[in-house]
Design goal:
- The chain has 67 residues and is an alpha+beta fold.
- It is 19% helix and 43% strand.
- The chain contains 1 helix and 5 strands, in the order βββββα.
- The strands form 2 sheets. A 3-stranded antiparallel β-sheet has the order 1-2-3, with no helix packed on it. Strands 4-5 form a two-stranded antiparallel sheet.
- Strand 2 and strand 3 form a beta hairpin.
- The longest helix has 13 residues.
- It is globular and about 40 Å long.
- The relative contact order is 0.19.
C-alpha cells in the first residue's frame, strides 16, 4: 500500500490552516482520510511530506516565550 501525507491548502479554514490528510490506494482506488491536525500550508514541505522543522521550531519558541 502506497501512503502519502498531504496538506489540503484548498480546504484551509478562515485562519489559513489546512488539514492534513492520509492518502493511499486500496484495491486500485484512491482513498483520503482526514486527521484532526491542521497546519499553515507555508509550514508544510510537500516533497518531504512533513512539517518544515525550522519554521515550526521558531514558531513554537515564539509561542512559548509569551507565557
Amino acid at each position: 500500500m502506497n501512503n502519502k501525507i498531504i496538506c489540503r491548502a484548498d480546504k484551509a479554514n478562515k485562519q489559513g490552516e489546512a488539514p492534513l490528510y492520509r492518502q493511499f490506494y486500496h484495491e486500485g482506488h484512491r482513498k483520503k482520510v482526514t486527521s484532526s491536525v491542521v497546519i499553515k500550508p507555508r509550514f508544510w514541505d510537500d516533497m518531504a511530506q512533513q512539517a518544515k522543522a525550522q519554521q515550526i521550531q521558531s514558531l513554537l519558541g515564539f509561542v512559548f516565550s509569551e507565557y
